[in-house]
Amino acid sequence: MSYGTLDISSKLDICLSVVQKYEWLLNSYVSDFYVDDHWNKLPLSWQKHLEQLPVESLAELLQNDDDVQVTRRSVWPLELLALRQVLRSLDISRTPKGQQEVTLPGCPLLEHRKLKHMFMKCVKPKKSHEIRRMAAICARSCQQTSVRFVVDFGAGLGHLARILGYGYGINVCCFEMQADLNRQALSIDAKLESMAAKHMDASELANFKRPAHLTQRLNSSTSPTEFLESIREAFQLPDTDIQFGIIGLHPCGDLGATLMRMFLNCKQAKFLNFVGCCYQKMSTQETQPKFDMHGYPLSSQLQRQLKTEAHSCQLSYEAREIACHAIELYYDRLNAGQHEYLKIHSLRAAAERIIVHHFPDHRHSALRNVKHAPGMSFNAYFQKAVEGTRFAELSSTHLSNKQIETDLLHWERIVCFYTLRLMLAPHVESIILYDRAMFLLENGCQVNIEAIFDPRISPRNHITSAVKS
Predict the structure, then answer these.
(1) pTM of the full structure
(2) pLDDT tops 80 at residue 127
(3) In this structure, is the dihedral angle defined by the CA atoms of residues 238, 241, 244 and 249, taken in order, positive or negative?
(4) What does DSSP say about strands 244-252 and 149-153: parallel, antiparallel, or unpaired?
(5) Cα–Cα distance between 153 and 160 in angstroms, integer?
């Protein structure tokens, strides 16, 4: 969806009001549920209604317009109903549009009987879904802007660049900070070319564009001059008078902001396509006050709004972290009544109560991920979770007490609480995406944000696209 400054400004104003009202909920760790008695912080009307509902009914709070599986209709507190409606009206849709496929250019090489496996070798289904769609969108951007060069930030093993270079005939310069990944990428390129030489005509091979792999780290201090010179050297060009697009598939934390700033500061950059992730790793004035530039907020508009008394709230680490969770997968588990899986948060919160009691200075310590199995006892969970940590010294006698038994009997409460936080997660992500769109609009760009991946496969599925006006 394309956006204008007035539209985003008004949406941000209401979005911030919602965050301010429910900031306490967004800022609450689920692992602290029992330690801090989160249940009794909920309004009494919410507590009474939620305790009477079967767990499966909670799926309705996470349901979007395209989820038609849920036919039950529960009675909800009016405030919750109003909140759900407000969120639906403000949040950016997480559902990809069907007509998108019609307008995207195809890539016959991805279906080549002998070569298609070379593009997807060691690529997991999630990554395969992402790079196919992202490559087609970037190829379309190249067509629309008459650009033949693309710069891929955080290219990894070069899977996306390989489809663009060999499949679509686009020159790609890959920036990747890990030298080992670049060495592996070059090896995969060479194997693909060797295989192609055996099964394709010389006329077809002439369209191949081998990606250039640079071992370089880009950050907020990298100047446009340095950046352009790196591109020139990679493509062995006589000068930096080159038009190109900037792309990034899940640049982590502040790298998304770095992409945008570099795009705006290089007149040669004609389009920008990136899908963000790891919002909790973005720097803010509160978390890194000594930084000259931060990952959030970016736009002057949002910075002004956050300085007003009406919107003095900030997106905390906890709020930005919940925005990265897999909402649709949890919705499916609620809807299917997968109770055994849903109990895992209760076990972790009970473990936190024990840890805080014996090690009060070690709240929120990292524990091992434990895959919950049907019938798993709390003792079995705890021993697996604390393996290799200082908490492993706690004996089974420390784990047996009436309070923990009572906590675990109320596992449905923590499912309710987590679902409420998850209901707000797309709202937090929308604020971050609106801020990025506003930042680009303020700098004279046309901006579009839309869901391009299946959210059940790739939860961070929104692409931010921009072209200079």
Answers:
(1) 0.94
(2) yes
(3) positive
(4) parallel
(5) 11
